[in-house]
Design goal:
The complex is a heterodimer. Helices cover about 40% and strands about 15% of the residues of chain A. By secondary structure, chain A is α+β, with helices and mostly antiparallel strands. In chain A, the strands form four sheets. An eight-stranded mixed sheet of chain A has the order 5-6-7-8-9-12-14-13. Chain A has a two-stranded antiparallel ribbon with strand order 1-2. Chain A has a two-stranded antiparallel ribbon with strand order 3-4. The radius of gyration of chain A is 40 Å and the shape is elongated. In chain B, a hairpin with a 3-residue loop joins β28 (about 505) and β29. By secondary structure, chain B is an alpha+beta fold. Chain B is globular and about 90 Å long. Chain B contains 14 helices and 51 strands. The longest helix of chain B is centred in the first third of the chain and has 17 residues, at about 155-170. At the A-B interface, α1 and β13 of A face α12, β47 and β50 of B.
């Protein structure tokens, strides 16, 4: 036994070289990229060093970026971050004839687990992989058919929503314009009222002085004292009281001047309040207008619409672009798209012991009608739900699927035939 | 932000009767020990000395037994000559000890036996690591005391009268006096301890001579080098479930190991005291000019201690391992990365998390299920709504070589129809109330619960049987276990645990064995997992509570820490304390249990955790999700990098665990284990070694881009494992540590085996080739090791293992073995990296293996400290002897 494995071990050295470097087609690389590896020298794809061609796929990592080993696991530890950004640039390419071609992580190559349906990732002999591509391809095909149907039906509904949005948006703009106009009027009004108030104040200030200085005489006059002194005073302008002078000069009584000021002040206050209220309204309208309702405003008709469902003994309600609740508990208010057009976030809900404010992430998926489902609480007081809506459906996606899966001809979407006409929207 | 611990729920020394009494006993200056050894009573047989001690005032007599064991180990036991109650002796901890005859020498008028000298009046013991080097004295400060069991005084009046006369005696006495504070009953909050057996504490002082540093006695959220307790409470050993524990505290935590190690630089001697007692214990420490004074006292049980005389740290670990056992060799998967959370909610959640790890190409080996997976917290059951098909779930993880761990706690829901509750009733296996007959009830997760009496072998056997595949429904060979709340935690008990006057089998009070309870749960679970598998699969069991010897049963972790930088920093001294007291397989929850870590903290915690022995992320129910794939590409990428760093070093970690299982040497080591002559390393607790060859300095502070690394005296230089830059042999060096870097250094003179290929779990690495990193010392030489076996079974104990030695010398690398055992493997070495090579450029390698000679290329690449040479695909078989000549 001992000798046998030594021979194997030593043989491995040659066998590996022979098997892996005598490549008519390079392992783990799609056809359209084969040429990159074809020359006498290979240039590492990101790090740029040049290495001899036989070092490609020789089961030893030579390039700093790991690009010399697309078909082995030798560079699996060197893979750079860009690998994980879509679209996946590197990895092991499974052709998967009969099913979908994919890239898998190089760490999955020869790890004893069948990842490619054609079994091409497990060539070391540690495990035997059946080719399941045809079987899985069929399953995938029927799944994709359903998905295409869903998207095309949904996208038709979406067209209606876009039309609806075209009506809603001008009314939003109109609301804003009206609000702006109203605000302008109120502001002009305020200036006038403030001027009026200033005048009234000046008069009232004078009246105030008089009131203070001549309090006793004022009282006596009120009592209409008809004696010698009074008579003299009335007849002799020199002896006229201050309030009499004021009345004569300004044409109003002291009391009336003070009242007039009070009234002017309150008018200013009312107008200012009106301005503040209108400003808030305008801000809301502006916010609404600036809210991202999708590329074609397709989500706009959902604004303010309420969808509810029961889960785990609770009633959940989503007012789209506004708020979410669980029974009477606030789960959060509209915040933003966490991921554009596929995940919404509603934050700042009722505080929760130990876990901060409640929040909801709403995953948006294509559906023929709009509804919410799949309520979950992956960590305490942080919720997820799924909003199915035609607004998330897409002809382009359906088209892409048709192209990728090559069944443009054979697929009759829903038997009504009315779908195809809207294909090239 | 982690909230503060509720201190009122836990006792301070002043709320504990025997702590108060023993501290008062110690406080009187210039008082004498009341104990004499009666010289006439001394009897010496080959390996055993016995003698009588007498309390000179009350006349009570005690029996002293000193036993001598091989490898510089002594045991001292003192008990009442005629005890009123049998003193509880800790069972199940000690292994078979090998006796050694005393070496009797005359030295003046005292009794001197080479390693121990007995002083008769007052009684004292002195210990020598060699006949000229005294390292330890016991009772040199006269704090030895045994509160002998006595009958409760008949009535209070007499008691008071006696009290008066005793008071008078006390004032006259030149001897230390024990007060009568709280002798017969104690109250704490709403709880009352009936103390039917009265006072029974045992205490002793130990002075470590020539020492400035003592370590050990976990578990405390405190410094590694233990602090003086003047002005604070003593270090407390009493296993407790402390909610939101705080740092820099002598408060008790979940586990206790009454082992203290002292280092001393001048003669590089290390010594240790192992206090074999499972009752509540407190330890006072006082650092003096030339020694460290310590005072130990336990509420009950035998006065029984071991003195380990080293003299090197490695000797101490071997000596302690001979007493309590070594770390059980963990199955390979369990030293990889664990993903845990309270709670993965249901089967779908489990499938998604598993899938996401693959999608993001992040390795993990074990997914954990906390208490919510059960049917109403009835352990061994499943919530069938959330987990309708557990077997399917386990099998789909197992298909990727992954494992699962479920939680099984020792409190049992009182619910008839629940098999464990019914089983406990039928066999009457419960812990009893103080009346000794009715079943105790306490509150825990399921509500009203009873507690199986794990001190009884019958209970442990019953418990172990429950893990059989046909008993534990839906369990499979890929399912392993987690024991939590085994201090035990009782929500409505005093200090969140059991009343001390509860009764265990054999009429033993809970008071006597409290600290051992959790280890018995751990033991019974481990035995169950081993017994369930006819193919003898190694077990994996994680426990929160622990005691001396817990290393035999599996892993432990530091319990419910917090998501803040302080707790990350504290994980290092806490794990070092646990490591040097025998438990190598230990870790702290990555990310922090309570609270939400920010991304920087999480990344730094993963980086530290990747270099700590037990590597598991865990989070509280109320925290936000924090699986590694949930973050930005950059953050997820850095976490992936940290986890992969762990996986790449699994061959090295496993080799270290093999050594721990053989010799007791910890996997995670303070610097002084390898450099005992460097006293500057004695206070260092923010860096450590993995094995002997990797020095780790985790970044534990926010916004830090560099760290100061201390390289110990006596080493021969170090290499940065990332940049290959070389560093000098000793002193402080400032090293770059951006967020993408874990500062780890390989010792010059070492060879470290790695597996460089990333895989989704450790199982898929089985056939992957090795990389050897050779770091040359100043002589241009290096030595290293690689241990491997099947990673799963106990076959390695027979002969199915392979322990390789590698040596680099004179441009030649050889692989050989000194172990007669052999295990076949077709795995090859794909790469050899040579650091610090000073000769002419290397270009070719010639590999000779069993008569075959092949050649391989050597290429050179630059590093900050000169060229690094790499042998490309030597393809030498790891299992066999070979030689590689370099040209």
């Amino acid at each position: 036994i001992v000798m046998k494995s030594i021979i194997c071990g030593v043989l491995l050295l040659f066998v590996c070289n022979v098997v892996l470097s005598s490549n008519e087609k390079l392992f783990g690389v799609p056809d359209k990229e084969q040429s990159i590896y074809a020359g006498e020298l290979f240039t590492c794809r990101e790090s740029g060093e040049k290495i001899r061609n036989e070092m490609v796929n020789d089961d030893f990592c030579d390039c700093l970026d790991g690009s010399d080993e697309p078909g082995t696991s030798a560079c699996s530890n060197v893979i750079t971050l860009s690998t994980y950004e879509e679209p996946r640039q590197k990895g092991f390419y499974c052709k998967n004839q009969g099913h979908k071609s994919i890239f898998i992580a190089n760490s999955f190559v020869n790890d004893g687990i069948c990842d490619c349906c054609d079994g091409s990732d497990e060539y070391s002999g540690h495990v035997e992989c059946k080719n399941t591509c045809e079987e899985r391809g069929k399953l995938e095909l029927s799944r994709v058919k359903l998905e295409i149907q869903l998207h095309e039906r949904g996208a038709n509904e979406k067209l209606k929503m876009i039309e609806e949005a075209k009506l809603i948006r001008p009314s939003l703009q109109q609301d804003l314009d009206e609000s702006k106009e109203k605000l302008e009027k109120l502001r002009t009004n305020l200036i006038e009222l403030e001027e009026k108030e200033a005048k009234a104040k000046a008069l009232a200030d004078i009246a105030e002085e008089i009131h203070d200085d001549d309090y006793d005489e004022y009282i006596r006059e009120d009592e209409e004292v008809d004696d010698e002194e009074g008579r003299l005073r009335r007849e002799d302008p020199e002896r006229m009281s201050n309030q009499e002078k004021f009345e004569k000069e300004h044409g109003v009584t002291l009391v009336a001047a003070k009242e007039a000021y009070k009234d002017a002040k309150s008018e200013v206050k009312t107008c200012s309040r009106g301005i503040r209220d209108e400003e808030n309204r305008m801000e809301q309208f502006e916010k609404l207008l600036n809210t991202d309702f999708g590329l074609m405003d397709e989500f706009l008709p959902l604004r303010g619409q309420t969808f509810s469902t029961r889960a785990g003994g609770y009633n959940y309600e989503l007012r789209v672009f506004e708020s979410a609740t669980q029974g009477s508990t606030s789960l959060g208010n509209w915040d933003s798209w966490a991921t554009k057009y596929s995940k919404m976030s509603y934050t700042g809900g009722k505080r929760c012991w130990g876990a901060g404010e409640r929040e909801v992430f709403v995953t948006v998926e294509c559906g023929v009608t709009t509804e919410i489902s799949e309520i979950d609480e992956p960590s305490t007081c942080s919720y997820t739900m799924v909003l199915k809506t035609p607004a998330a459906c897409s002809f382009e996606y359906a088209q892409e699927l048709r192209a990728n899966y090559n069944f443009e001809e054979e697929l009759d979407v829903d038997g009504t035939g009315n779908v195809k006409s809207s294909w090239f929207f | 932000k982690v909230d503060a611990v509720d201190r009122g729920r836990f006792k301070t020394c002043s709320r504990s009767g025997f702590c108060t009494r023993n501290r008062e006993f110690a406080a009187v200056e210039d008082a004498l020990s009341p104990y004499d050894l009666l010289e006439d009573s001394v009897s010496i047989s080959a390996a055993r000395i016995t003698a009588d001690l007498i309390h000179k005032e009350n006349g009570e007599k005690f029996l002293l037994v000193i036993s001598n064991y091989q490898d510089n180990t002594l045991r001292i036991r003192i008990t009442e000559k005629a005890p009123l109650h049998k003193r509880y002796e800790v069972g199940g901890v000690l292994g078979n000890l090998q006796k050694q005859n005393f070496d009797q020498q005359a030295k003046g008028d005292s009794l001197f036996f080479g390693n121990i000298q007995i002083i008769t009046s007052p009684f004292e013991l002195r210990f020598f690591s060699d006949p000229k080097t005294e390292v330890l004295r016991a009772n040199s400060r006269g704090l030895f005391n045994i509160e002998h069991y006595r009958n409760k005084p008949e009535n209070n009046e007499n008691n008071e009268e006696n009290g008066v006369t005793e008071e008078e005696n006390k004032n006259k006495s030149k001897y230390r006096q024990m007060s009568d504070h709280d002798l017969w009953e104690e109250k704490f909050q709403s709880h009352s301890d009936s103390k039917p057996r009265g006072p029974s504490s045992v205490g002793m002082d130990f002075s470590f001579f020539g020492s400035k540093n003592v370590y050990g006695i976990p578990e405390h959220a405190s410094s590694f080098s233990l602090k003086s307790t003047k002005g604070t409470d003593p270090y407390r050993l009493y296993n407790l479930d402390v909610f939101e524990y705080e740092l820099d505290e002598t408060m008790a935590l979940y586990g206790s190991i009454p082992l203290m190690i002292s280092t001393q630089a001048d003669k590089a001697t290390t010594s240790a005291v192992f206090w074999l007692n499972a009752a509540e214990t407190w330890v006072d420490i006082d650092h003096k000019e030339d020694k460290v004074d310590t005072h130990w006292f336990s509420e009950s049980g035998a006065l029984d201690f071991f003195v380990l005389l080293g003299p090197t740290p490695k000797d101490i670990f071997r000596q302690y391992a001979a007493l309590t056992g070594t770390q059980e060799l963990p199955p390979l998967f369990s030293i990889a990365y664990h993903q845990c959370r309270w709670n993965y909610k249901d089967q779908e959640d489990v499938a998604t998390v598993d899938q996401k790890f693959d999608e993001y190409d992040i390795p993990y080996d074990v997914l954990w299920l906390d208490i919510e997976h059960t049917d109403e917290k009835k352990y061994f059951t499943w919530d069938s709504n959330k987990f309708p098909a557990p077997k399917e779930m386990l099998d789909s993880l197992a298909d990727k070589g992954r494992h699962m761990v479920t939680i099984v706690d020792p409190h049992i829901k009182r619910s008839s129809g629940y098999s464990i509750f019914d089983g406990g009733n039928e066999r009457d296996l419960w812990v009893k109330k103080s009346d000794g007959s009715s079943t105790y009830e306490g509150h825990c997760w399921p509500g009203s619960s009873s507690y199986l009496d794990f001190s009884s072998e019958e209970t442990r056997k019953y418990w172990a049987d429950q893990f059989a595949y046909d008993k534990y429904e839906h369990s499979t060979p890929s399912l392993f276990i987690w024991n939590d709340m085994n201090e035990p935690s009782v929500f409505n008990g005093p200090e969140v645990t059991m009343q001390k006057d509860l009764i265990h089998k054999g009429n033993v009070e809970h008071r006597d064995l409290h600290n051992q309870f959790g280890a018995w749960v751990h033991q019974a679970t481990q035995e169950g997992l081993v017994a369930r598998d006819p193919e003898s699969r190694r077990s994996f069991v994680l426990s929160r509570a622990f005691f001396a010897g817990s290393q035999k049963y599996g892993a432990i972790w530091t319990g419910d820490n917090g998501a803040d930088w302080g707790h990350l920093e504290a994980s290092i001294p806490m794990l070092l304390s646990i490591s040097v007291t025998g438990i190598s397989f230990c870790g702290a929850d990555v990310g922090g249990f309570f609270g939400n870590p920010n991304e920087e903290l999480l990344i730094r915690w993963y980086q530290a955790g990747a270099y700590q022995p037990f590597f598991r992320a865990h989070a509280h129910l109320d925290t936000k999700r924090r699986e590694p794939f949930l973050y930005s590409a950059e953050t997820s990428g850095l976490i992936r990098q940290a986890i992969r760093a762990r996986y790449a070093l699994l061959p090295y970690w496993y080799s270290c665990f093999y050594h721990a299982s053989n010799t007791g040497i910890p996997v995670m080591r303070p610097l002084w284990v390898e450099y005992p002559q460097d006293s500057k390393s004695f206070d260092i607790e923010d860096e450590y070694l993995i094995g002997s060859d990797l020095l780790v300095k985790p970044v534990t502070k926010s916004n830090e881009n560099t760290v100061s690394v201390y390289f110990p005296e006596g080493s021969d230089g170090w290499y940065d494992t990332l940049t290959y830059e070389s560093y000098p042999s000793s002193g402080h060096v400032q090293v770059d540590a951006p967020l993408s870097k874990i500062p780890v250094f390989q010792r010059a003179g070492s060879i470290v085996p790695r597996k460089q290929r990333a895989r989704r779990s450790s199982s898929q690495m089985e056939n992957d080739p090795y990389t050897l990193i050779i770091a040359l010392d100043s002589k241009g030489e290096a030595h290293g090791e690689l241990y491997f076996d099947d990673g799963v079974s106990f076959e390695y104990k027979k002969s199915s293992r392979n322990h390789r030695q590698f040596q680099f010398k004179n441009n030649e690398i050889i692989s050989y073995s000194t172990d007669s055992a052999f295990m076949e493997s077709s795995v090859v070495i794909e790469r050899i990296v040579i650091l610090g090579y000073k000769g002419a450029d290397l270009t070719k390698a010639q590999i000779s293996q069993q008569g075959f000679v092949i050649s391989a290329d050597v290429f050179s690449s630059p590093s900050p400290s000169g060229p690094v040479f790499t042998v490309k695909r030597p393809n030498a078989l790891a299992a066999y002897d070979w030689k590689i000549e370099l040209h």
